[in-house]
Write a structure and sequence with these properties.
This protein is α+β, with helices and mostly antiparallel strands and 325 residues long. 38% of the residues lie in helices and 18% in strands. The protein contains 9 helices and 11 strands.
């Protein structure tokens, strides 16, 4: 129960978790100067961020993003625009009511050339009165299925109508645009742009593994027992150590492993919730046994098969990745 409640507290404290996610993004993609400018404000909760990647019409398909950021050399600014309904950011936690800034993934255009997906920091609400800034449309996407933690989270929708931001709000650790509009790219792997996604998937793997073991331990109070399958979390240790040492040679493997583990653990978690309840027979329907409460709380985990990558898509990606040596 403690592990489940830890997960729910984590979800309901979305403002704090967004700060932690912003740290991962900035550490991986921002320059030292940009980190010094923004991280102290985030640590003091003077600004609250949200991870604005998923679009209404483009979830796991990152290359299908429609949001554009176009550089204007005359003003030294970027113009961020979402031209269609399907390009609306959809689902980010903390966006509906809390966030003041968004880390936006968008197609970079300079000198009439599209350079693909890059990351930009965009202020979306006033720090004085918390109202949306001009050109920014924000809303809450409404109630979600079940009575778990996600119903209390302000998942939101975000639109931009030709919003201008300074050039230095492009996260430029690995690629940058000069004052003249020239695009300069480093030789570092572009997968680092998705470091936060890999990090969140690893957290999901750990959370679901702990939660499943808690649920099964409750089931063991009844006559029917099953063996708990241990998830291979320890296999991530070598990958994490190398990434922390700025050795990116295993980054593709890290991406594939977190994708596969996320799909495996969340699917197993959801399948076993109902199985554990049935194994307790009629007692599984008694409120006094505790399983009915856990069953409602686990509604939060059902959606984990969809967010941070649809499980079927992630398993296909894992299948295509052959080198696990």
């Amino acid at each position: 129960m403690e592990g489940i409640m830890d997960h729910l507290v984590h979800e309901r404290s979305k403002a704090q978790s967004n700060v932690e996610e912003m740290k991962v993004i900035w550490a991986g993609s921002a320059t030292e100067d940009q980190q010094q400018q923004w991280l102290p404000l985030a640590n003091k909760m003077q600004i609250i961020g949200t991870y604005a990647q998923t679009e209404l019409g483009h979830g796991s398909n990152i290359h299908g993003l429609e949001t554009t950021v176009t550089f204007d050399p005359e003003t030294d600014e970027f113009t961020i625009h979402r031209p269609t309904l399907t390009s609306s950011t959809w689902w980010p936690g903390g966006l509906g009511k809390v966030a003041t800034h968004a880390v936006v993934y968008a197609l970079l255009i300079t000198n009439d050339q599209d350079y693909g997906v890059h990351i930009f920091l965009v202020q979306i609400r006033s720090l004085d009165d918390h109202f949306p800034l001009p050109g920014v449309t924000i809303g809450d996407i409404g109630m979600k299925f079940g009575s778990g933690a996600f119903d209390s989270m302000d998942n939101g929708v975000l639109r931009f109508d030709h919003v201008r931001i300074p050039r230095n709000q492009m996260l430029m650790r690995f690629s940058r645009v000069t004052r003249q509009g020239k695009y300069i790219e480093s030789n570092v792997l572009k997968q680092l742009l998705y470091g936060a996604m890999v990090c969140v998937r690893q957290i999901i793997v750990a959370d679901t593994s702990i939660a499943l073991s808690r649920l099964k331990s409750r089931m063991y109070c009844y006559p029917i027992c099953r063996r708990v399958v241990e998830m291979p979390i320890h296999r991530m240790t070598e990958l994490i150590q190398k990434l922390e040492a700025n050795n990116f040679s295993m980054l593709p493997k890290a991406h594939a492993c977190t994708a596969g583990l996320k799909a495996l653990t969340t699917s197993a978690d959801v399948d076993n919730v109902e199985e554990c309840r049935k194994l307790c027979g009629g007692h599984g329907y008694l409120s006094s046994c505790g399983l009915t409460e856990l069953y409602h709380l686990y509604a939060a985990f059902f959606s984990s098969c969809i967010y941070e990558g649809y499980n079927i898509v992630l398993l296909k990606y894992l299948y295509m990745f052959q080198d696990f040596s």
